[in-house]
Amino acid sequence: MKFTKLVPNIFYTDIKVGLELFVECLEFSIGYNDLESAQPCCVAAKDNLAIFIIQSEEFAIKDRPELRLQTDNIEEVYAKVSSMHPQLLHPNGKQVTLKPWGAKEFALKDASDVCIIIQQWPNE
Q: How does pLDDT run along the chain (124 residues), one tens digit per residue?
């Protein structure tokens, strides 16, 4: 058995909030696009990552995910994100910090409380 990618669903009451975080801030590209339908959705991808962004008030209320993205240059990511989208920096993770478990991390949080932790492990 072989898998090639994990594609989580992320639900939003207003899909524009998710597009701001993933497309505008983190520079994912929209692949599959059904943004004009009655239940807007799309697949956003970058490098070997993909997410399915879905507008559904019912499920958005039930689930506010926390995801981790690993990078090999956290300072570069932080510089770009903090200069262009400082409003998305998480209040408890506004700076790159070395965590007790050995990873450098900072975090983002959008208006609907979806949290993205950007991390870099040593030797990456």
A: 877 888 999 999 999 999 999 999 999 999 999 999 999 999 999 999 999 999 999 999 998 899 999 999 999 999 999 999 999 999 999 999 999 999 999 999 999 999 999 999 998 6
Map tokens 């505008």 to a residue: 24
Q: Are strands 104-109 and 49-55 parallel, antiparallel or unpaired?
A: unpaired
Among the four given CATH numbers 3.10.180.10, 3.30.565.10, 1.10.238.10, 3.10.290.10, the one describing domain 9-120: 3.10.180.10
Q: Which residues of 55-65 are buried (b: 16+ CB within 10 A; e: fewer)?
A: bbeeebeeeee
Identify the sign of the CA torsion 8, 92, 81, 36.
positive
Contact at 8 Å (CB) between 65 and 8? yes
d(CA 72, CA 24): 21
The domains of the chain are located at 9-120
Question: What predicted TM-score, i.e. pTM, was given to this entire model?
Answer: 0.89
